[in-house]
Amino acid sequence: MLMFGFDCGLRILNLYQSRNSAITYNVDYMQLNTLYPSLTMCPQQILDAAKIRNFVSQFNETSTNEMTEFIKKLSNVNARRAEYFKMSLDNIPSTNYMELIFNLSQIYSVEYNGISAVKVMTDLGICYTIRNFLDKEMNTKNWNDLHHINQSFINLPHTFNFSNSFPIKMTIKHNIKGKMGIFVHSPYELPTTWTRAAVIVSGTQLGTTLVAGIKEMSYQENLMSETSIDERRCHGITPSSLAMFPTTYSQNLCLMECRANYIIEKCQCIPHFYFNRNLAKFVGVTQVPICNVIGLNCVHRHAKEIRNLHSNSKSLPMNLTCQCYPNCIGQIIVTEVSNFPLATNNSGTIILTIEYPPMDSFERSVMYSNLDYAVSLYNVMSAFLGVSILSLCDLIYFFTIRVYWFNHGYRGSVNDH
After folding, report:
1. How would you class 393 by CB atoms within 10 Å of its CB: exposed for 0-12, middle for 13-18, buried for 19 or more?
2. Phi and psi (nearest 5°) for 351?
3. Residues 6+ apart with CB under 8 A from 160
4. 0.90 surpassed by pTM
5. CB-based contacts of 312: which residues, under 8 Å, 6+ apart?
6. Residue 234 in contact with residue 219, Cβ under 8 Å?
7. Using one digit for the tens of pLDDT, what is the confidence trace for 1-54?
8. CB count, 10 Å around CB of 329?
9. Is 92 exposed, middle or buried (CB count within 10 Å of its CB: 0-12, 13-18, 19+)?
10. CB neighbour list of residue 66: distance below 8 Å, 6 or more residues apart
């Protein structure tokens, strides 16, 4: 009986630790403010042909073609797409790879309400994002970009609710050439290698309309204070536990850092398209060099594992962990895509439409509080050990107050005859 009671107590403890939060339907969704979704555009045509010609003309004519091919391959390398390099150029050190790409890249114009989109660096390469709370972390000005954007969307409204007039339309003007992926996602996230684009468009011949349906995910006020990360199985936006991104957390940023750690473990270097900040202490080396051609070919060999890396990956080395929980607050967004003709080919147009407010809203809530755990444990003790509050008080009295008076010579009120 005692062992059975002990087993039940362990089961309650495990239940409390592993299932201490639940996702419930929020019946007060009509009173909630919903975050505007973020839109990110990732062009595939990054480099400016004229800038490349001017750059390679400064070198030996015999190496012009090889250098042009090398730069094009270098600009295509990211966590999703790895390139194999047959040759290297000694006059371009690996520490200058990212700066070279920025200096030779197209200067695209992407605007919404007269405000320029923020140029960011992601797992997919150079992208432009609108209404995103991670833009300061990922802004390419951190890479010494000569043409970085200082403007932000801080003065725009971040939320809407049932009182707004629908449909809500956001019109984005751009001059991006060639193919590009358009992603509609939570403003607390950025697209990564496994994120599926809402649509892939080519050129500025047709405009694109995206109609977004949003499901909001929020959490109770007491969730953070009454549960640990492992218990609620989600991570707050702040504070961040990431080395590369110390101020803001997101699941995709965590996976980006995990991929970087995996590459460092396998290739002993970090690719040029990742932040090289504070990673050395996590992999046990004093300094993490930028990958040269040999390192990039190593990344090419492990490209499949890098692309498929996720929070439950079993292929990680034993000394690396990749516990990337989702954000406690976020959105599930489904889009319908259609095209419309444009009067001019000089500028592309993307219209993001929200036809109605979210009809479904979910909330992460505390399933078992500390009081629930104490009551459950007390019930087990009562059922299998016969323990009650009164017997616990007697037990405490027996080993404290009674022992004290016994040691001081008090033996009760029995008369000696």
Report:
1. exposed
2. -115, 115
3. 33, 34, 36, 168, 354, 357
4. no
5. none
6. yes
7. 566 666 666 666 666 656 667 787 776 666 678 888 999 999 988 899 899 989
8. 18
9. middle
10. 87, 89
Q: What angle do CA 283, 252, 138 make, to 5 degrees?
A: 85
**Tens of pLDDT, residues 343-353:** 776 788 999 99
Nearest C-alpha neighbor of 326 from the set 250, 240, 229: 250
CA angle 186, 189, 191 (to 5 degrees): 105
Q: Which residues contact 364 (CB under 8 A, 6 or more apart)?
A: 21, 22, 23, 24, 217, 218, 219, 220, 223, 232, 234, 328
Distances (CA, A) of 331 to 179, 328, 365: 27, 10, 16
Segments in 284-388 forming alpha helices (H): 293-301, 303-307, 370-385
Q: Count CA atoms closer than 13 A to 399's CA, side-chain side.
A: 5
Long-range pairs of 28-32 with CB within 8 A, sequence gap ≥ 24:
29/216, 29/358, 29/359, 29/360, 29/361, 30/161, 30/162, 31/161, 32/161, 32/216, 32/218, 32/361
Report residue 408 as tokens: 């001081």
- Which tokens in the block code for residue 224? 């953070």
Q: What is the DSSP letter of 139?
A: B
Alpha carbon of 35 to those of 32, 172, 360, 365: distances in Å? 10, 18, 14, 20
Residues 6+ apart with CB under 8 A from 45: 106, 176, 177, 178, 179
How many other CB atoms are found less than 10 A from the CB of residue 51? 15
Structure tokens at 282: 């996590």
Q: Which residue did the predictor score with more confidence, 106 or 157?
A: 106
If you write DSSP's letter for every residue of 293-323 in order, what string do you get? HHHHHHHHHTHHHHHT--TT-S-S-TT----
Give the helix, strand, coil percentages of the chain, each rounded to 5: 35, 25, 45
- Enter the DSSP assignment of 31: G
What is the Cα–Cα distance from 166 to 194, expressed in whole angstroms? 32
The Cα-based distances of 125 to 19, 99, 322 in angstroms read: 38, 13, 22
